[in-house]
Amino acid sequence: MNENLPPCPACSGVYTYEMGALLVCPECAHEWQPAGDAADTTADGPKVIKDAVGNVLTDGDTVTVVKTLKVKGSPSGIKAGTKVRNIRLVDGVDGHDIDCKVDGFGPMQLKSSVVKKV
């Protein structure tokens, strides 16, 4: 038991531990963000995702890629200026928080830091 970590908000278990940026309860397997990360949340609690210039992104937005991106298995990659329509915000892996379909490449995840809202 770590005295500095809060108890689990789901089951009040006291055996919470840190796993990367998350806190985890081994009793009920609940994972949550520590309360200190409130800068990226609104009053309701969901995370606010912003584009490369600071605009708030929402599901269904159209964005433009601001720099050329390399894509594994593709000789050309995604060029800067490519429009991506109807994005979906997700809790992705390694900072990839946008789920979308890019014309000519198919479904993929992008980082919000490489797109700009149209």
TrEMBL record:
Gene3D superfamilies: 2.20.25.10, SH3 Domains (2.30.30.40). Residues 49-118 form the Protein YjdM C-terminal domain. Residues 5-33 form the Protein YjdM N-terminal domain. Pfam families: YjdM (PF03831), Zn_Ribbon_YjdM (PF08274). InterPro entries: YjdM, YjdM_C, YjdM_N. Belongs to the YjdM family. NCBIfam families: phnA. This is Phosphonoacetate hydrolase.
